Amino acid sequence: MAGNAQPYTASRTPVNMPPMPAKDDAEATWNFLQLGVQKIMTDLKEGMDMKTYMGLYTAIHNFCTAQKAVGGGAGGFGAANNRGGAHLLGEELYNKLIDYLKSHLAGVRDQSKQHVDEALLTFYIKEWKRYTTAGMYNNHLFRYLNRHWVKREMDEGKKNIYDIYTLHLVRWKEDMFGATHKSVMDSVLRLVEKQRNGETIEHSQVKAIVDSFVSLGLDEGDSTRSTLDVYRQYFETPFLAATKKYYQEESRSFNAENSVVEYMKKAEARLDEEKERVFLYLLAEITNPLMKTCEEALIKDHSNMLRDEFQVLLDNERQEDLGRMYKLLARIPDGLDPLRTRFEAHVRKAGLAAVEKVAAEGDNLEPKVYVEALLDVHTQYQDLVNKAFNGESEFVRSLDNACREFVNRNKVCKSGSTRSPELLAKYTDTLLKKSSTKMTEEDNMEKQLSQILYKDVFQKFYSRNLAKRLVQTTSASDDAETSMISKLKEACGFEYTNKLQRMFQDMQISKDLNTAFKDWQSENLDAADQKNAVDATYNILGTGFWPLNPRLPPSRLPTPSANYIKSQGKMPYTFQVSTFQMAILLLFNDAETVTYEEMEEATKLNKENLDASLGVFLKAKVLNVSPAGAKPEKGTSYTLNYDFKNKKVKVNLNIAVKSEQKQEVEDTHKTIEEDRKLLMQSAIVRIMKSRKKMKHQQLVGETIAQIKSRFSPKIPDIKKCIDILLEKEYLERLEGDELGYLA
Amino acid sequence: KDRHSLATYLRLYLLPGTQSYHPTKTNLNKLFDKYRDDPRSNPDSIGLDGASNYFHDIGVDLEDVGLFIVSEIVQSPSMGELTREGFVNGWSSLGADTTASQKSLIATRRSQLSAPEHRDLLRRIYRHTFTLALAPPARSIDLDAALVYWRLLFSAPSLQWSTPSTPWLDWWCEFLETRFKKAVNKDLWDQTFKLVEECIRDESMSWWDENGAWPGVIDEFVAWVGEKRGGERMEE
Lengths: 743, 236
Description:
Chain A is mainly α.
């Protein structure tokens, strides 16, 4: 043997190493190598000296290059032959190594059978580490083989040939993993279950197992790359299955003994725990499937139970628990839809109940009471949406839907669908009028306004009230009015407030004109004339913008010859009166007692207006009637009450009588109806003008789309408008439900 | 001869291209002339009196659907008014230039009114009836008049608007008299014919759809019928 030894290694070969084998003897070469490989595999911590290592390396090198020389001596034909020879020799070593690894792993596998649970994991991890470390060393040692024989084989596309390190992994997978992964995984799962049950476990073991499984994911097409296939199949899948089973069982037994609220807390805690678990020792890739599995077992499987509890929580106003439920159900697909439906129904019911409570007042219902009842419900549930439901837009929409429903269709509105905007506008009026207490409430108004379906109704009433506030100077502050207008503009658009703004402009112009007129008077009138001049203020208002019905003055206004108010000789009162009332009062400048007939004659007022105005005077005790207590009619006479007293110096007598108010409301509603008809008709004509021909149904749809920002038109109403336009011959019927436009 | 009839004579018989000589038309013109009320100032039209005589001669009762048949043929512009042009053209296209032949033709049509294959004939007569009844500048006809016409047009010998379970015509009249109470415009008139056809085709009213193009009144009628049926069923 010594004669075969290479001169530069033989003399220093350590005692336990045999001499260098003959370079063309495969058997001998392997026997020589095996000693080294064995040492690397089983006894690496003892170390290997450089000489031994170099000897092994050289033996491989010699073996792989030996055939070349032989082949060259055998004759000069065919490079392919030479290469074929080199193949054979490389292959022999490669196969010997495979045999070695197989038998090594068979031993490890046998030993593993003696262990279970954590001991098995410890063993598996220890063997894995030792084996893979050895694999790296061997890879280095065999690098000549890697670089030439292995590379060439792989280049030629030969299957199942790997570099030496990968070969180690392949063998492990075949000879070790295949037979043990199941018991290893069972141990892992038992360990995790222990932890889920509250015990402390050695995280690192699971982590090491995960890593080792991942390492075995070899890409068949490209051995330099790895995939997660092995990990997915042998770790993730059973892990998820066990998780599912665990939580299914746990939630079943937990639910049997605990309340739904308790269960939600438990589920919440479990979900947090599982997330933490990923971070501690699992692969980040498992997060999504793991959470999905948990969500299914913990939430989806119990979603009906949770949803049933939703109503209970709503009824008891358990905000925190509602929030918990929201967060849980938000995790599963379509989890919240049923909640939204129930929430909407609940809010609607609450709103209707609130209205029901105040509706007992009947026609005398105070706008304030009504609006506050509505606002309270809205505020309460908006708060809930913000705090418990994360202010989620879908819930906001459900809230809006519910509010829209109960604001527009409730007990109070049943008599006429437009009662809501009417009351709302009245309420706004009281807010903006002088001497109102709280100004801040108007902030809530816009919320409410956006719920109102019939914005056109609100607009009508609002503008009417605004006109009165401006004309009667009962508006509390210009700022408040302006800010309300800008809010309306925000909620309903520029068109909506255009006319309202024109009213303010008129007021401003009138104010300037009055000042100018007063200046002119003081410059041009002498003192006596000034004294006799009526102290008057004039408003010049554009008919188109003001929703006031200009009252035709009576045919005759008595000439204001002297000042009635001053004639009282006491602290002068200022009366705010209508034109009609002024006509009556001025009569008393010439006489202290005026008969009903005289008034009729002098003012030419019709009975209705005369009686109404007199009624106000009598009630305010400005006039006395004789005989006392008589109704205004022929044969009665009226005297100025010189004992008139009032707390205020400025007395507003221009107040609408109840019946008048009612009439006004009716008129307003009537105007609204008319306006709507015109609006719908003009929309229809506009659409048809541009389309010329259109299907009936389409036309109805388009009309609704165009108008719905102002109010929600009803289909029968639209049809009536179409009928009218057909009759007026703006439209004609064509074949097949189609309508045509007639220019 | 006065100038007017001369002009008519020229127009009808002598002007080339427009009208060629036509023995039927000559006969019809002669027939027309016979019934004129006021040949001097109104040479080309027959007024109420003349029309009554004419209808009598061709066996048409004034309270019978036959009146509408003949009115449609001669395209009379209003009830009891006939124009020469309509008279001559209408009858000549049917080749009937004697009262006897016209009488038999009307009888034939009367018998065709209820037949499904002659639905177009009924539709033409129906539509023309509105023109007949309308007194411009009004755009609609009084409900009372409309009801009379419907009763003539939709009962025997014409098409009967009723089905085994539903006396549609009676209900329609009742509904309009008690609920609708307005004049009938052309659209409603025309759409009523469609309604009649649908009701006869399917008395369960499955053809109705709230999004359909029916006039609002008909929608209301359908709802009214539904209620009425529901109510009656409850009584049973």
